[in-house]
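User: Hi! I'm working on a homework problem where we have to compare a predicted structure to a textbook description. Could you give me the structure for the chain below?
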Amino acid sequence: MPVLVAGSIASDHLMHFPGRFADQLLADHLHKVSLSFLVDELTIKRGGVAPNICYAMAQLGGSPVLVGAVGEDFAEYREFLETHGVDCGHVYVSPTKHTARFVCTTDTEMNQIGSFYAGAMSDSGEIEISPIWDATGADLVVISAYDPAAMVKHSEECRDKDLRFVADPSQQVTRMDGDQLKQLIEGADLLFTNDYERELLESKTGLSTAEIDAQVNVRVTTLGSRGVEIVGDFGTVHTPVAKERSKADPTGVGDAFRGGLLTAREWGLSWERSAEVGSLLATMVLETLGTQEYTVVKDEFAARLAESYGDDCAAEVLPHLA
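Assistant: Happy to help. Predicted structure tokens:
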């Protein structure tokens, strides 16, 4: 079934700083930071949360539908995504603004400092979800990070129209206030955050972990190198990260995880298996520079699943791979 993925659509300007950010930050002077980092690499890649998730889904043979706002400079990016199996027929094109930009610097310890220019993303409020749901026959909406007002609007629309949705506030936890976050997550089928975002979500909303769990059906919390925790009425599932072969850049790792987990759930796999599929996709992104530079090859993907999670996992996932 098609899955609507709403979120930022952007190009990524990725830079590398050959040092540690921590060495440049003075604890007693964080209230007046003024720093410039001389970087030794610059790479411009396709990015944005929604296309990253869609690309991951399409690599596994899913049917993602991209939802978001872009500028007229999106034509080349559109062609790439459509060639790789992403439905871009419902993307809103702004007549006046450029497609969004993400500018990010990564240090030698994979820590990141980034900035995001919204551009056409600020027109996301023009988008309505239910007509796209009806036109595509979708069975799930992923509301990921982009214009906060649009995220809240989409969440309200999903509740009003009884559409199953995922709340994925991601980096917009820092921008949204407590009331917006409460409106976003209420009634969500899934809530995605990392562990820091979850704590910030609790702080801003005043809700405890238990109270947040009562608002959503399933809570998925990524824990970095410690794997992922999934909590629902089935109990708690913890999945370790997949074995990595190298580290290149962490940008888009969480997006790939989401795309993999959601696609595996669409296949009907368990939460544990779905998290394992998502974790391997996340590791593949970590091993490449750029968020959409990896390719899922059926037998190779199954072999890597077996390496990380055992032969039973590989045997269960293999029939579903495109």
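For your comparison, note the following. The chain has a mean pLDDT of 94. Residues 271-286 form the longest helix (16 residues). Good luck with the assignment!
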